[in-house]
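>> received
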Amino acid sequence: MGSERIIAFQGAYRFLSNFWPCRVKWGTEYYRSVEHAYQAAKTSSPLEQVKVRDCVTAGDAKRMGRKVTVRDDWDLDKLAVMLDLVRQKFQDPMLQRQLLSTGDTELIEGNYWHDTFWGVCNGRGENHLGKILMKVRSEIRGAC
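>> returned
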């Protein structure tokens, strides 16, 4: 299984997506997906955070996140925020089992929207989300 790869978080692997419904906390508020919380974390404005939190869908939260006032330290903090949120997501026993069921498969957040920081598009990208997921999977495995 070591040479296998999951190259997109769709279909049976949709649960790996930040859009997957789950309850996570950022600051003092709970959010309905990692995407919601991540987009809210980008800004220091409580009003903008509420607007993101109240979005019905993760897609809406992502679009709203493009309009927020991004905090000055965001580029220094965004990887740590994502790691924290993904760890929270996979505290859910069902999601934890699904993540563990991927074994040692390489997880790649393949996309067509040119996100080469969090994923890979057209064979290029840093795949930070995939790396975070694999790190969390390893941490869970070590705790079992």
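>> The chain has one domain: 5-143.
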